[in-house]
Amino acid sequence: MIPARYAPILFGFLLSGLMSFIVTGVATLRALGLSPDLMSKWLSAWSFGWPVAFVVVLGVAPMVRWMVAKLTAAPGAVARD
Question: Whole-angstrom Cα distance, residue 5 to residue 68?
Answer without folding.
Answer: 22
